[in-house]
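Students often ask why we bother encoding 3D structure as a string. The short answer is that it lets us treat folding as translation between two languages. Here is a chain of 220 residues written in the first language.
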Amino acid sequence: MPSATINPTRMELTRLKGRLRTAVRGHKLLKDKRDELMKQFLEIVRENRRLRAKVERGLEKANAAFTVASAIMSPQMLEQALLYPKQSVELDMKFKNIMSVNVPVYQFHTKNEDPAEIYPYGFAQTSGELDTALEALSAVFQDMLELAEVEKTMQLLAEDIEKTRRRVNALEYVMIPDFQQKIRYISMKLDENERGNITRLMKVKEMVLQEAHDFKPPAS
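And here it is in the second language, the structure alphabet:
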């Protein structure tokens, strides 16, 4: 039942009808946004699976080569070889907008474009497997960065999808039915008042006619 504090007037009815129209439009827009977000989210999920498989293959290759290098080289020699890296990386982060959600875009730049800079050691005292491990890690680094970007995008989109879903449900199951119920209540009250007014007018008219019929002019 509508709240007893509702004022059943035509002004209130007009106001509620305006709010109902706004709620219906908002509900449609939010549903469209939710559907598009879901479409974008599913595309990113597929990209995430592809990148994760690629990164796992690259890391598996690097770990296998590093395991062999660790077996061939002594721990001290291995630590000494990797102690002072020659290459450094800078990470830039920008944002792009997906359906009003700002998601990150990562880009990295190496200090030196020379591929040989990934080896911080001389080749005389090290194993070829260590070279293979560093090459595999260098090759998979860009994919790891893309994977981090995609997973963060998935997280942000999932949060916005959930918020949008709650808003759609609130409009669909709470606000719109509440407005419709209040509008029906006020319309019924106004119709009831109108019928009461018509009934009173008919009674007044009947009384006036009866008085006119019963009226006798004074004798001259």
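Translate back mentally: The chain has three helices and two strands. Keep this in mind for the problem set.
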